[in-house]
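>> received
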Amino acid sequence: MTLLEQRCQALEVRAAQSQSVRELLAKRSFPRLFTIEAEYRWALEAAELDWTRRLIADIRSGSLEGLELWRGSHARRG
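>> returned
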């Protein structure tokens, strides 16, 4: 969980930075054609952040299938 939460934090920082860049580009009327690849990366990062948040929620709620099996196998090893 700690690593997933750290990943979310890093993605949130990048999302805020990306938003600042988008705002600056919009103020300067920068042509979208030149930001298409950046838009794609921003969309991937947003999707990753959403997916990671949902995974954390599933783990916290106990609804992630196989979680109990995984915990049991680790408990037997340790």
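>> The CA atoms of residues 18 and 41 lie 10 Å apart.
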